[in-house]
Structures are given as C-alpha cells and as structure tokens.
Amino acid sequence: MDLALLWFGIVGFLFIGYFVLDGFDFGVGMSMPFLAKDDTDKRLLINTIGPVWDLNETWLIVAGASLFAAFPYWYATLFDGFYLALLLILLALIARGVSFEYRRLGKSPRWKAWFDGMIVVGSAVPALLWGVAFANIVQGVAIDETGTYTGSLFDLLNVYAILGGLTTLLLFFTHGVQFVALKTEGEMRERAHALAKRSGLLTIVVAAAFLVWTAVQHLDVAHLPLIVALAGGAAVALIGSWLANAGGHERWAFGLMATTIALAVGTILAAMYPNVMPSTTDPAFSLTIENASSSAYTLQIMTWLAVFSMPLVLAYQGWTYWVFRKRLTRDLIPADAH
C-alpha cells in the first residue's frame, strides 16, 4: 500500500470534515445580522452551535497535526507562503471563540454588540480565506527549487482565488442558515428558510462558476473525468439542497449541502493530484505526494494510531450530536440570561 497516498486521502478527509462541520458554525455566526431581531434571537442562534462549535474546530487541529507529521515539506511551504492569510484565520478563530465565552459576562448593549461583531467577523474571515488558500493551491504558486514561496500576499489575491473564497463564504453561509432552520422552531425557522432560498440561488451561481473554472484549468490531466464527476456531483447536490429547502425538508437540505461541500473539496483534491503544492515557476519545483511526505516508518506509525483513534473520535462526535439533537425555541432562552 502506498502510505503517502493513503495519508493524502486522510488529510483530505479531515479537511472535508472540518469544512462540513465548522462550515455551518461559520454560517450561523455570519447569519446573525440577517436572522436576529433582538438579543434573544442572537442567544438562540449562538445556542444552536453552543455544544458543538469547539468540537468541530478540533478537526482543524487534527488536520494540521496530520499535515505536519505526514507531509512536513508541504506544511513548511504552505505556512511560508500563506503565513499572513493563515495568521488572519487563526486570529479570527480566536476572536470568535472568545466572543462565545465572554459575550454573556456583560450586561450592557455595547458590550454585547462588540462581541456580536467579533462573532460575525470571526466567522466570515476564515470562511473567505480558506477558499482563497485552497484555490491558490489548486492554481499553483511561485515556488523555487528549495520549496520556498517567492511571491507576495497580493499574488494570492487573484481573480480565481477570490472567486474560490466567495464560493466557500456562500457555501458556509447557506449551510449555517439551513442548520438554523433544522435546529429551531417558530419565526426563526421561517426566517431561516426564506434566507436560505435567497442565499442558495447566489451560492449556486458563484459555486458553478468556480467549479467550471477549476475543471477548465485541468483539461490536460489524465484524471479529468474524475474532476468533472466530482464537480458535477457537487452541482447536483447543491441544486438538490436548494430544492429541499424550498420544500421545507430541512434534513435533506442540510445533508445535501454537506454533500456539496464534501464533493467540492474532493474536486479540489482531485485537481491538485499528484501535486500538493504546484509550482508556477517551474513544474519541476512542485511538491508532490511522494517528495513532500515523511519516511515510510513515520507513516506506518501514524497509520496504526489512526486505525485505533479515528473510530473513537468519530463515535464520540456522533454521540455528541445525538445528545444535542433537539430543536430550540425562544421560550428556552431565559429573559434574564446574559
């Protein structure tokens, strides 16, 4: 078995899990200015993800640790070239996490408004920049023969990358709004349905443009049929999600949107293969699955650890979602709560 290829798949699976799960967290945070009419509504929205948002973020920690251990050269080049973007993501995640915990400690409207703004910004910034980062990886970046990034931050802000960022931003936003419809009752549920209809249409247009552009960029690769199949599946799932939401089927809408995100990330991974960091300076300088991976012995140890630990982690997360599966209403928010 090619362990380097196996771990490319595992790292991809971890990022898919992160984008699917933390993606709706971001969406709920970004939806606050559109769905919440008063402080009770805001607390209701926060409570929908309160038990799970920090658990969802652990997927990023595990994905980063796996990337560092399995593909150290990929990790080093990624953080060298995308240092500022990844730093902004980290700061945004910290601000968002702090806001969830500290918002309830103050009683004044100004205190709450400050942390509400941090939740919105702390959700939107990662949702945008993750798309920008992965779009640049697919398109290729300026890497020299030593694996060092030679471009600038402005080189990363190209049209294709910005379109990728808008795609993830809208996907996560709609995903989060659908989660609100799935987790609430009453007027909040109705508002979420209506908002998901509007945002879903815009998401379909932007995501279609990005997926088509991605496929066109890779017309000369041997595995183009796989890229087209994954992109087509993502498009079908996205349209199905919008139709399910329009019909009031929250579970189907949410599940199909999760499928859309998973297939979209799969499209990106397929477009990257066999590279992990394509070089626009010279294709010979590209980092591939083979030349960026750790030693065979390291990958063997990691594989055995993954075999025993991943089923436990997945079982625990599934149990957590089962425990907190019930819908929430405004009546469950105490009037004097912070």
Automatic annotation (TrEMBL):
Molecular function via GO: electron transfer activity; metal ion binding; oxidoreductase activity, acting on diphenols and related substances as donors, oxygen as acceptor
A Pfam family: Cyt_bd_oxida_II
A GO cellular component annotation in the UniProt record: cytochrome complex
Keywords tagged on the record: Cell membrane, Electron transport, Heme, Iron, Membrane, Metal-binding, Transmembrane, Transmembrane helix, Transport
Membrane topology: Multi-pass membrane protein
Subcellular locations according to the entry: Cell membrane
Transmembrane segments: 6-36, 82-102, 114-137, 157-182, 194-216, 222-245, 252-273, 301-324
Superkingdom of the organism of origin: Bacteria
Keyword Electron transport: yes
Principal location listed in the UniProt entry: membrane
GO BP annotation list: aerobic electron transport chain
PANTHER family in the record: CYTOCHROME BD-I UBIQUINOL OXIDASE SUBUNIT 2, CYTOCHROME BD2 SUBUNIT II
Family, as annotated: Belongs to the cytochrome ubiquinol oxidase subunit 2 family.
The name this protein goes by in its record: Cytochrome d ubiquinol oxidase subunit II
Record organism: Microcella pacifica
Taxonomic lineage from the root: Bacteria, Bacillati, Actinomycetota, Actinomycetes, Micrococcales
